[in-house]
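Hey, weird one. I pasted the Condensation domain-containing protein sequence into the form twice and got a warning about non-standard characters only the second time. First submission, copied straight from the form history:
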Amino acid sequence: MLEYAYSPDPGEQEEISELTAIQRKMFICNKLPLYRLPLLYPLDAGTSYGAVRAALYTVMKAHKTLQVKYEYDPQLRKFYQRYTPLQPEDFSVEPLEIHEAPEAYIRGSSSGIDLAAHYPWRLTFLEWLDQRFLYAEFHHIAVDGLGIRRFEQDFIGRLLEGQEIIPQASLPLSGYRAICELQRHSIAAAEVKDRLLRLPALQPGPAPGAGRLAVRLTAARQEAVQQLALRLKVTKNAVYQGLLEEVLGRMCSGDTYGTIGNWRMRIGNFTEAGCYVRMMPKQIQTEEDAESRIRNIHGSNLQSFRDPGNDSHGMIEYPIVYSYEEDMFRHFRYIPADRMCKFELYIRVYHYQQENGIEVEYSKSKYSDDQIAAIINDLGSRLDDLAEKGDSCEFNRKN
């Protein structure tokens, strides 16, 4: 427990909002080992637990979107989140001695955060051999990638440099209410549902749970992607997405998949640690050459960022989802630990410090390991082709 007094801000009180569409899906899975965001931060020998606790509490108090509890009203049949100001007596970070590497300990944990009973995070000091770690786990319902980056910046700034943390100025849940209003009259488009990209389900027998396979992004592969992006004047994300579309287009039926976006541009919010995730539809580009496909993907992504529109397509359940994550964490280490699948097939490109790769998370009840390995191997081959041929015209081949 913290050892200093707390004075509530004048007028500090509870506030309530409905959950956004994506948050509702997450809350329905409450207590399941899903939507976990576990983070590890190694502690130096000279860093005291008291200093870490104080920094964590200061940052949690500054980010009101993390001081939220969740509930379901059976009479109204609606899901709500309630801003509940954090008090010192409710804040605790205790040490725990473990007997295996912290990554294994986190992945082996099957207990999800109970959103109906607790705040959407838990904090522990892990002690393993002669090492100490801060283990901070968030539920995705409360924070997205940009939100975690902001939390990390504030925590590290407070802990290492004693920076003052500016409290969230807006009403705690105003962003969520704005999103709910935008979604209120949205209806999923039938024409998109009929065109969803799907990988044939070939799993011969029941195999519950999530599978994961990954391809490494070596220095040569990363350099090749960077050089092509510079020459085409596009983002690296567009290059990876273009290569992925080429691979999936040969293996799947349909043409529309989901990408992970957010509402932050639309609602003008880039500083809060909240969950402003939304699903964006992308249609596989049909250009015959790879470079035209990549340019068109870049243009489409840019248009979606500038003008995200309403959320009619975000209400759709996409079987295949893609995301691109770069420099989300500079000090924390993210440990993938979900034991169930968020989507039938989830493909993410990630760049975290020295960890770079393309990971495919898939439903083992639908797809075989061989199917996913074929996607991974094909992606790896395309990346190697790009690394070998560089900017030569041979890369610009037809599918």
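That's the output from the first submission. The warning seems to come from a hidden character in my clipboard, not from the data itself. DSSP finds eleven helices and 14 strands in the chain.
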